[in-house]
Amino acid sequence: MQRSLDTLPKVGPVLAQRIVDWRKEHGPFKSVEELDAVDGVGPKMLETLLSLVTV
Predict the structure, then answer these.
(1) Does residue 55 belong to any structural domain of this protein?
(2) Tally of domains in the chain
(3) Residue 9 domain boundaries
(4) Are 8 and 53 in contact (CB under 8 A)?
(5) Between the CA atoms of 14, 10, 49 and 55, what dihedral angle is there, to the nearest 10 degrees?
(6) How far is the first Cα of the chain from the last one, in angstroms, to the nearest whole number?
(7) Closest by CA position to 53, among listed 16, 22, 21
(8) Which CATH number does the domain housing residue 46 bear?
């Protein structure tokens, strides 16, 4: 899964790992907007990712 994440624009291996770690701790994302809770994902990045990811 992490390899898929770090192929997204502006998502490198460190942020991809944070996303995976967040999911392990909190469970599956209920919406794409929940990515905003991950350290390193702000409003601009979330806007970029909204059309590229699904939950």
Answers:
(1) no
(2) 1
(3) 2-50
(4) yes
(5) -30
(6) 13
(7) 16
(8) 1.10.150.320
